[in-house]
Design a protein that fits this description.
It is built from 8 helices and 6 strands. It is α+β, with helices and mostly antiparallel strands. Helix 2 packs across helix 3, helix 5 crosses helix 6 and helix 5 runs parallel beside helix 7. It is globular. The two termini are 41 Å apart. The C terminus is likely disordered. The protein binds 2'-deoxyguanosine-5'-triphosphate (DGT) and magnesium ion (4 copies). One magnesium ion binds next to loops.
Length: 245
Amino acid sequence: MAKSKFEYVRSFETDDTCLRNCYIVVRLDGRNFHKFAEQHQFAKPNDDRALGLMSRSARSVIEELEDITIAYGQSDEFSFVFKRTTTWFKRRASKLMTHVASQFSSSYVFYWKEFFGEQPLLYPPGFDGRVVLYPTNHNLRDYLSWRQADCHINNLYNTVFWTLIQKGGLTTTQAEDRLKGTLASDKNEILFSEFDTNYNNESAVHRKGTTLIWEKVRYSGVIKSAQFLQISVEDIPSMCPTSSV
Ligand code: DGT
Ligand code: MG
Ligand code: MG
Ligand code: MG
Ligand code: MG
Protein backbone atom coordinates (compact mmCIF):
# COMPACT_ATOMS: atom_id res chain seq x y z
CA MET A 1 0.00 0.00 0.00
CA ALA A 2 1.32 3.39 -0.94
CA LYS A 3 2.40 5.54 1.95
CA SER A 4 0.49 8.74 2.49
CA LYS A 5 2.10 12.02 3.50
CA PHE A 6 0.48 11.51 6.90
CA GLU A 7 2.43 8.34 7.59
CA TYR A 8 5.13 10.17 9.55
CA VAL A 9 2.78 10.66 12.54
CA ARG A 10 3.44 7.02 13.44
CA SER A 11 6.93 7.99 14.52
CA PHE A 12 5.42 9.94 17.40
CA GLU A 13 4.38 6.66 19.05
CA THR A 14 6.75 5.72 21.87
CA ASP A 15 8.16 2.27 22.45
CA ASP A 16 6.84 0.66 25.62
CA THR A 17 8.07 -2.89 25.08
CA CYS A 18 8.54 -4.71 28.40
CA LEU A 19 12.08 -5.92 29.11
CA ARG A 20 12.65 -9.55 28.11
CA ASN A 21 12.91 -12.35 30.70
CA CYS A 22 10.87 -10.40 33.26
CA TYR A 23 7.52 -11.31 34.68
CA ILE A 24 4.98 -8.71 33.61
CA VAL A 25 2.54 -7.85 36.38
CA VAL A 26 -0.58 -5.81 35.70
CA ARG A 27 -2.35 -4.56 38.81
CA LEU A 28 -5.84 -3.11 38.61
CA ASP A 29 -7.52 -1.11 41.35
CA GLY A 30 -11.11 0.12 41.56
CA ARG A 31 -11.53 3.85 41.07
CA ASN A 32 -12.91 5.56 44.16
CA PHE A 33 -14.34 2.32 45.57
CA HIS A 34 -14.72 3.95 48.94
CA LYS A 35 -17.69 5.78 47.42
CA PHE A 36 -18.71 2.86 45.17
CA ALA A 37 -18.91 0.53 48.21
CA GLU A 38 -21.00 3.06 50.17
CA GLN A 39 -23.40 3.71 47.33
CA HIS A 40 -23.92 0.01 46.65
CA GLN A 41 -24.30 -0.82 50.35
CA PHE A 42 -21.35 -3.22 50.52
CA ALA A 43 -21.33 -5.16 53.78
CA LYS A 44 -18.61 -4.07 56.23
CA PRO A 45 -15.83 -5.00 56.49
CA ASN A 46 -16.18 -7.61 53.69
CA ASP A 47 -18.90 -8.01 51.11
CA ASP A 48 -18.84 -11.53 49.67
CA ARG A 49 -20.90 -10.50 46.65
CA ALA A 50 -18.36 -7.83 45.76
CA LEU A 51 -15.39 -10.15 46.33
CA GLY A 52 -17.10 -12.87 44.28
CA LEU A 53 -17.69 -10.45 41.42
CA MET A 54 -14.04 -9.33 41.50
CA SER A 55 -12.89 -12.95 41.26
CA ARG A 56 -15.38 -13.78 38.51
CA SER A 57 -14.13 -10.80 36.50
CA ALA A 58 -10.51 -11.89 37.06
CA ARG A 59 -11.41 -15.36 35.80
CA SER A 60 -12.82 -13.81 32.64
CA VAL A 61 -9.49 -11.98 32.19
CA ILE A 62 -7.32 -15.07 32.53
CA GLU A 63 -9.65 -17.15 30.34
CA GLU A 64 -9.93 -14.58 27.56
CA LEU A 65 -6.37 -13.19 27.46
CA GLU A 66 -3.18 -15.09 26.76
CA ASP A 67 -0.28 -16.16 28.94
CA ILE A 68 -1.52 -15.15 32.40
CA THR A 69 -0.34 -17.78 34.88
CA ILE A 70 -1.38 -16.41 38.27
CA ALA A 71 -3.80 -13.79 39.48
CA TYR A 72 -4.11 -12.50 43.03
CA GLY A 73 -6.89 -10.29 44.35
CA GLN A 74 -8.14 -8.61 47.53
CA SER A 75 -10.39 -5.65 48.29
CA ASP A 76 -10.90 -3.68 45.05
CA GLU A 77 -7.64 -4.80 43.41
CA PHE A 78 -6.38 -7.69 41.28
CA SER A 79 -2.87 -8.47 40.04
CA PHE A 80 -2.25 -10.53 36.90
CA VAL A 81 1.10 -12.19 36.25
CA PHE A 82 2.09 -12.89 32.64
CA LYS A 83 4.63 -15.61 32.05
CA ARG A 84 8.16 -14.32 31.53
CA THR A 85 8.37 -15.58 27.97
CA THR A 86 5.11 -14.11 26.76
CA THR A 87 5.27 -12.42 23.38
CA TRP A 88 1.61 -11.44 23.44
CA PHE A 89 1.19 -8.03 21.80
CA LYS A 90 4.97 -7.92 21.42
CA ARG A 91 5.12 -7.33 25.19
CA ARG A 92 3.80 -3.80 24.73
CA ALA A 93 2.90 -2.52 28.20
CA SER A 94 0.03 -0.30 27.11
CA LYS A 95 -1.62 -3.07 25.07
CA LEU A 96 -1.34 -5.62 27.87
CA MET A 97 -2.54 -3.24 30.57
CA THR A 98 -5.48 -1.84 28.63
CA HIS A 99 -6.66 -5.29 27.54
CA VAL A 100 -6.62 -6.47 31.16
CA ALA A 101 -8.38 -3.34 32.41
CA SER A 102 -11.09 -3.31 29.77
CA GLN A 103 -11.80 -7.06 29.93
CA PHE A 104 -12.03 -6.79 33.72
CA SER A 105 -14.28 -3.71 33.72
CA SER A 106 -16.70 -5.05 31.13
CA SER A 107 -16.87 -8.38 33.01
CA TYR A 108 -17.56 -6.57 36.29
CA VAL A 109 -20.62 -4.99 34.70
CA PHE A 110 -21.59 -8.12 32.70
CA TYR A 111 -21.61 -10.40 35.77
CA TRP A 112 -22.95 -7.83 38.26
CA LYS A 113 -26.45 -9.44 38.35
CA GLU A 114 -25.04 -12.89 39.11
CA PHE A 115 -23.75 -11.54 42.41
CA PHE A 116 -26.02 -8.61 43.28
CA GLY A 117 -29.32 -9.94 41.90
CA GLU A 118 -31.94 -7.23 41.60
CA GLN A 119 -29.80 -4.58 43.33
CA PRO A 120 -29.03 -2.15 40.50
CA LEU A 121 -25.60 -1.03 39.38
CA LEU A 122 -25.93 2.75 39.85
CA TYR A 123 -23.12 3.97 37.60
CA PRO A 124 -20.29 2.50 35.49
CA PRO A 125 -17.31 1.52 37.65
CA GLY A 126 -13.73 2.12 36.48
CA PHE A 127 -10.36 0.52 37.24
CA ASP A 128 -6.87 1.97 36.96
CA GLY A 129 -4.01 -0.20 35.80
CA ARG A 130 -0.23 -0.26 36.14
CA VAL A 131 2.53 -2.48 34.81
CA VAL A 132 5.49 -3.60 36.91
CA LEU A 133 8.31 -5.90 35.77
CA TYR A 134 9.94 -8.42 38.10
CA PRO A 135 13.17 -10.10 36.97
CA THR A 136 13.38 -13.02 39.42
CA ASN A 137 11.09 -15.61 40.99
CA HIS A 138 12.14 -14.22 44.35
CA ASN A 139 11.01 -10.70 43.43
CA LEU A 140 7.72 -11.98 42.08
CA ARG A 141 7.06 -14.02 45.19
CA ASP A 142 7.84 -10.98 47.35
CA TYR A 143 5.48 -8.89 45.24
CA LEU A 144 2.64 -11.35 45.84
CA SER A 145 3.57 -11.61 49.54
CA TRP A 146 3.47 -7.81 49.75
CA ARG A 147 -0.08 -7.69 48.36
CA GLN A 148 -1.13 -10.53 50.65
CA ALA A 149 0.44 -8.81 53.68
CA ASP A 150 -1.54 -5.69 52.74
CA CYS A 151 -4.71 -7.80 52.67
CA HIS A 152 -3.90 -9.28 56.08
CA ILE A 153 -3.07 -5.96 57.77
CA ASN A 154 -6.16 -4.20 56.41
CA ASN A 155 -8.48 -7.10 57.12
CA LEU A 156 -7.33 -7.56 60.70
CA TYR A 157 -7.76 -3.84 61.34
CA ASN A 158 -11.16 -3.69 59.61
CA THR A 159 -12.40 -6.84 61.37
CA VAL A 160 -11.65 -5.46 64.85
CA PHE A 161 -12.81 -1.96 63.92
CA TRP A 162 -16.24 -3.12 62.71
CA THR A 163 -16.60 -5.67 65.51
CA LEU A 164 -16.08 -2.88 68.07
CA ILE A 165 -18.83 -0.91 66.33
CA GLN A 166 -21.29 -3.65 65.34
CA LYS A 167 -20.98 -5.84 68.44
CA GLY A 168 -19.33 -3.52 70.96
CA GLY A 169 -21.59 -0.53 70.36
CA LEU A 170 -18.71 1.94 69.89
CA THR A 171 -18.91 4.90 67.54
CA THR A 172 -16.43 5.04 64.64
CA THR A 173 -14.38 7.68 66.51
CA GLN A 174 -14.30 5.58 69.68
CA ALA A 175 -13.24 2.50 67.69
CA GLU A 176 -10.48 4.51 66.01
CA ASP A 177 -9.20 5.73 69.37
CA ARG A 178 -9.33 2.26 70.83
CA LEU A 179 -7.16 0.89 68.00
CA LYS A 180 -4.60 3.71 67.94
CA GLY A 181 -1.11 2.30 68.50
CA THR A 182 -2.24 -1.33 68.80
CA LEU A 183 -0.17 -4.17 67.39
CA ALA A 184 -1.52 -7.24 65.57
CA SER A 185 -1.32 -9.21 68.81
CA ASP A 186 -3.44 -6.58 70.63
CA LYS A 187 -6.06 -6.73 67.89
CA ASN A 188 -6.18 -10.54 68.07
CA GLU A 189 -6.56 -10.26 71.83
CA ILE A 190 -9.45 -7.78 71.65
CA LEU A 191 -11.31 -10.13 69.29
CA PHE A 192 -10.57 -13.17 71.43
CA SER A 193 -11.14 -11.88 74.97
CA GLU A 194 -13.97 -9.41 74.31
CA PHE A 195 -15.82 -10.98 71.42
CA ASP A 196 -14.99 -14.68 71.71
CA THR A 197 -13.61 -14.59 68.17
CA ASN A 198 -10.48 -16.38 67.01
CA TYR A 199 -9.22 -14.36 64.04
CA ASN A 200 -7.66 -17.47 62.49
CA ASN A 201 -11.12 -18.98 62.15
CA GLU A 202 -12.38 -16.05 60.10
CA SER A 203 -13.01 -16.72 56.40
CA ALA A 204 -9.80 -17.44 54.46
CA VAL A 205 -11.05 -15.36 51.50
CA HIS A 206 -11.07 -12.34 53.80
CA ARG A 207 -7.77 -13.09 55.56
CA LYS A 208 -5.70 -14.18 52.56
CA GLY A 209 -7.41 -12.87 49.44
CA THR A 210 -7.98 -15.00 46.35
CA THR A 211 -5.36 -16.67 44.19
CA LEU A 212 -6.33 -17.90 40.74
CA ILE A 213 -4.13 -20.47 39.07
CA TRP A 214 -4.49 -22.93 36.20
CA GLU A 215 -5.04 -26.52 37.09
CA LYS A 216 -4.73 -29.35 34.62
CA VAL A 217 -7.94 -31.31 34.55
CA ARG A 218 -7.70 -34.68 32.81
CA TYR A 219 -10.56 -36.25 30.98
CA SER A 220 -10.39 -37.01 27.26
CA GLY A 221 -7.14 -35.15 26.89
CA VAL A 222 -5.80 -32.27 28.95
CA ILE A 223 -8.04 -29.32 29.54
CA LYS A 224 -6.99 -26.30 31.52
CA SER A 225 -9.36 -25.04 34.14
CA ALA A 226 -9.00 -21.92 36.29
CA GLN A 227 -9.18 -22.63 40.02
CA PHE A 228 -9.88 -20.19 42.83
CA LEU A 229 -7.76 -20.86 45.89
CA GLN A 230 -7.50 -19.22 49.29
CA ILE A 231 -3.90 -20.01 50.01
CA SER A 232 -0.78 -18.37 51.35
CA VAL A 233 1.52 -17.03 48.67
CA GLU A 234 4.16 -19.47 49.97
CA ASP A 235 1.88 -22.32 48.96
CA ILE A 236 1.48 -21.37 45.31
CA PRO A 237 2.71 -24.64 43.79
CA SER A 238 4.41 -23.36 40.66
CA MET A 239 6.21 -20.59 42.52
CA CYS A 240 8.91 -22.67 44.15
CA PRO A 241 12.21 -20.78 43.79
CA THR A 242 13.74 -22.97 41.11
CA SER A 243 10.79 -23.09 38.72
CA SER A 244 10.03 -20.57 36.04
CA VAL A 245 6.38 -20.02 35.33
P1 DGT B 1 -8.64 5.01 44.58
O1 DGT B 1 -8.23 3.56 44.47
O2 DGT B 1 -7.47 5.87 44.91
O3 DGT B 1 -9.41 5.49 43.40
O4 DGT B 1 -9.66 5.12 45.83
P2 DGT B 1 -10.43 3.97 46.61
O5 DGT B 1 -11.54 4.62 47.35
O6 DGT B 1 -10.81 2.86 45.67
O7 DGT B 1 -9.36 3.46 47.67
P3 DGT B 1 -8.58 2.08 47.85
O8 DGT B 1 -8.46 1.32 46.57
O9 DGT B 1 -7.31 2.40 48.55
O10 DGT B 1 -9.49 1.29 48.87
C1 DGT B 1 -10.51 0.42 48.52
C2 DGT B 1 -11.86 0.91 49.06
O11 DGT B 1 -12.86 -0.03 48.69
C3 DGT B 1 -11.88 1.02 50.57
O12 DGT B 1 -12.41 2.28 50.93
C4 DGT B 1 -12.86 -0.02 51.03
C5 DGT B 1 -13.66 -0.36 49.79
N1 DGT B 1 -13.96 -1.78 49.77
C6 DGT B 1 -13.33 -2.76 49.07
N2 DGT B 1 -13.88 -3.96 49.33
C7 DGT B 1 -14.89 -3.74 50.22
C8 DGT B 1 -15.85 -4.59 50.88
O13 DGT B 1 -15.90 -5.81 50.70
N3 DGT B 1 -16.73 -3.98 51.73
C9 DGT B 1 -16.71 -2.64 51.96
N4 DGT B 1 -17.61 -2.12 52.80
N5 DGT B 1 -15.83 -1.81 51.34
C10 DGT B 1 -14.95 -2.36 50.50
MG1 MG C 1 -5.76 4.04 46.13
MG1 MG D 1 -9.38 1.70 44.72
MG1 MG E 1 -7.54 -0.67 46.53
MG1 MG F 1 -7.72 -3.02 16.20
